[in-house]
Design brief:
The protein has about 180 residues and is mostly helical. It has a domain of about 110 residues. Strands 1-2-3 form a three-stranded antiparallel beta sheet, with no helix packed on it. The longest helix has 19 residues.
Length: about 180
């Protein structure tokens, strides 16, 4: 039986399961994501970029550094292995512009590495994307979010995700001022 007792009017609560007090944490890893009590995406984005780097590192000497492998093949492996690792769970992300910039920097940095382009070569990002035949990271994010919304819209009305997506508050209002 769970009981919740507020401690000194603070945001933290003491949760008891039977006679045992459960400790609270500010963040934890759940299914590869890092939900936190601040609802910030910084830790999640950093973890996704680290996992994308490790997915790239596994193919470093076998694929990325080989001159006999075509750029098209390298980009397809990058799309299949690295981008899927990087953007796992992105359907439900709410990102700020700084997060998109971080993901875009990762994307461009490793596309340049795959294509063998150094920063001294003065190749623009749009030219690099054209050479590789791939789109920017923001397009991938929008595509995954639109795909998820499409699934939710086609669901029957009794499904909980559709009710939550189209739900409205019965009462109450947002506090005056900007969002928290």
């Amino acid at each position: 039986m769970l009981h919740s007792y507020a401690t000194n009017q603070s945001a933290a609560a003491t949760v008891m399961a039977g006679d045992m007090i459960l400790t609270s944490t500010s963040k934890f890893c759940y299914l590869g994501s890092y939900p936190s009590n601040t609802v910030a995406m910084d830790d999640d984005i950093t973890a996704r970029i680290a996992k994308g780097c490790s997915a790239l590192g596994g193919h470093q000497h076998r694929l990325w550094c080989k001159h006999g492998v075509s750029l098209k093949t390298k980009v397809e492996v990058y799309r299949a292995v690295v981008l899927t690792t990087l953007l796992f769970g992105s359907e439900c992300w709410t990102l700020y512009r700084k997060h998109i910039k971080q993901l875009e920097q990762f994307h461009m940095r490793f596309l340049r590495k795959i294509a063998g382009i150094r920063w001294q070569d003065c190749v623009s990002n749009t030219r690099l994307l054209e050479m590789c035949g791939i789109s920017g990271i923001e397009a991938f994010l929008l595509q995954s979010q639109f795909r998820c919304v499409g699934h939710i819209v086609r669901m029957p009305d009794f499904r909980i995700p559709k009710q939550a997506f189209f739900g409205q508050l019965a009462s109450g209002c947002r506090l005056q001022g900007g969002p928290v």
